[in-house]
């Protein structure tokens, strides 16, 4: 394949130590690898001749070799170029180009002549990925990793968007500040609205980690293809602006139990001189393997409503015991109780979905066990097949089918992953029996086996086992409280969504999410994959028994989130009656697609604003969001097809809209536009705008 002239060739450089350094470049990105005087692997990354990662060390400590990071010599190198295009099953675009230069360095530890380590580097036009490979070898077969010494040495005190390096939850608000100010001790100790917290390193942060340098470069550090290995946190050394890999330990403090041959997840650095470039990168997906599912025709994006928000808001409960203490004369529960997953209430959601073209209904609290499920380390709370007696499962399934609506299963594990694994086959056969195409799983609480963490090696393997089992039964999976995604949706496209961050629900039961939150998430959590954020709340105040609770956005921002926070599984999370009060605004939720042919990030600044346009077929949809600051934005429509007229339907904040004072004020207008047009969008404080663009025949 003929390469563009701008691609930098391979260079061999001689260092003062006589060790050959290898440099790989593609477009504006250059990576340099060498061994230092102690035989320790070192790499650097430059972007447009600006240093991004200063000389940073690589390697491990093993249980029987605490120095498996130095004393190496280079046995040889391999070089190749890949330039291909592959198609997604679903995603932000249909066709993805995978273009990189690869350098593989074969190392041998001189102290242990038979111990080998390879490092694979892939250099893309917008960043770098690298991973370690433990080849099959006689001197290293079964071994224990006690630490990873990978460094990312930064060039200065960057602006950083971070959450604590908690082993068990990602559900924090983001802190924005200088790298030198990272300290999560107070945040972890004082926050009370997260169930499980284990962040022993007060200077550790989670990935994806978003940063901006003083000279205007945007840098994102994460990992890709997390399989068979613990998640990587990053310890921040403020003395020299260095991040060092900090792996999540197991119950006895070890990090990983491995068997050579083995390769680690990729460590990734995405870089751009524009914020839009970070969001346009496909490095994470490209570093994952192609789909392991041969027939993907059953994997279909879905919109759904569900019995969920009313539980978060306190209107109803998951637990049946809160339904009613007494029974009617025919032995059935009194219908005006508080248990949300009762037959009559579920049918109400089915009716709304059917009437409004929504694919499915999710019901939580349908199964026995919710009376004593949280925080007790009990292994057998749920069996995943026994409904409460007020939930007529066969009748509900028949009713939904008659209305053209599907049902989504809910499996809360209460953190007992061992119990769930024992029951996986019966749970998924149950889904097949009753026709459930998708399941939302949950892992609230401390993990069983005891002492393991949500983000440790054992649980990383567990999440993959669940995805594999679901694929065997042709069921799609949406995981809540899991490790944050690393692009595995390419390999297992039935793993359609995850939570793994602070979602919309926090507006119902805590102090809420700051208006800037949704402008940060695309640069952090969503870098790894789709998020089930549960957008679409229309009743933004006075929805809870606690009148101080409110959603920290306007109504139009909730609409815009369907475009800016990507997921192929999207919930319209509010009550049917709240949508019925604003069916004109609900039309956008009806119309917006769930998978796209093309996406364009039109403008962005993490923590401030974001505007994205996405195309499916001949139609385009735009979502624009802002933080607590009002914003005016002129959006050029030059991405539209020339020679065509479009009808633009603009859902905009009202003249006096404000996320706190007047969140439900909105306007809807239609105008004719073409590729020469400019849309002027006015976003209220905490506001947004949503636009559909449909060709006019």
- What's the CATH H-level superfamily name of the largest domain? Aldolase class I
Number of helices: 13
Based on helices, strands and strand pairing, what is the structural class? alpha+beta
Question: What is the second-level CATH architecture of the largest domain?
Answer: Alpha-Beta Barrel
* Level-1 CATH class name of the largest domain: Alpha Beta
Question: What is the CA-CA span between the terminal residues?
Answer: 41 Å
The total beta strand count reads 37
Helix content: 10-25%
Q: What oligomerization state is this entry in?
A: single chain
Instruction: Please describe the biggest sheet, giving its number of strands, its sense, and whether it closes into a barrel.
Output: 10 strands, antiparallel
Radius of gyration: 26 Å
Overall geometry: globular
Strand content: 25-35%
Number of domains: 3
Task: Summarize the SSE layout with pairings.
Blueprint: E1 11-14, E2 20-26, E3 29-35, E4 41-47, E5 50-57, E6 60-62, E7 72-87, E8 95-109, E9 116-124, E10 127-134, E11 142-148, E12 151-153, E13 159-162, E14 175-178, H1 185-190, E15 204-205, E16 209-212, E17 218-224, E18 232-237, E19 242-247, E20 256-259, E21 262-263, E22 266-272, H2 275-280, H3 283-286, E23 302-307, H4 309-312, H5 343-355, E24 360-363, H6 393-402, E25 406-412, H7 417-434, E26 438-442, H8 457-472, E27 476-480, E28 495-498, H9 506-509, H10 517-520, H11 555-564, E29 569-571, H12 576-580, H13 583-591, E30 598-605, E31 609-616, E32 619-626, E33 631-636, E34 646-653, E35 666-673, E36 678-683, E37 688-695
Parallel strand pairs: 23-24, 23-29, 24-25, 25-26, 26-27, 27-28
Antiparallel strand pairs: 1-2, 2-3, 3-4, 4-5, 6-11, 7-8, 8-9, 9-10, 10-21, 10-22, 11-20, 12-19, 13-14, 13-16, 15-18, 16-17, 17-22, 18-19, 30-31, 31-32, 32-37, 33-36, 34-35, 34-37
Helix pairs in contact: 5-6, 7-8
